[in-house]
Amino acid sequence: PFLRLLEAQLQDQRREHEEEVEALKNEVDAMKEELEKQQQAFLQTLQLSPETQVEFGLQQEITRLTNENLDLKELLEKLEKNEKKLKKQLKIYMKKVQDFEASQATVPAERRRHERNMQVAVQRKEKDFQGMLEYYKEDEPLLIRNLIT
């Protein structure tokens, strides 16, 4: 039974490998065809007059830029869709925040007073230190210059 299982796995791997090789061969053939087309176009371009070569080059560049422009438009559309989605999510979250704040407004008055007292205490502690700065006398010119800039 174990050997049969290994044999089946080996056959599966061989089949997958053969499929991969076939796919790669097809890809190589497609690339060869594309290369031949490009070589023929290049040879035809060399046989053209200089003015026609320039015109042909311009046409190719226009085609390339058009394709690039279409890709950029596609990307822009995706980004705009994403922006709309994010704006919708933001509205939903803003609504949730408003609902939460509204629910907090209905909290009993005692609890709100206690929370306010805690906030005031924190604010006072922060205010005790506002505007104070410790420095060495010799650092004063550097400190003044940094404050000005």
From TrEMBL:
Domain of life of the native organism: Eukaryota
Coiled coil: 3-103
Name by which UniProt lists this protein: MYO5B protein
Keyword tags: Coiled coil
Annotated source species: Steatornis caripensis
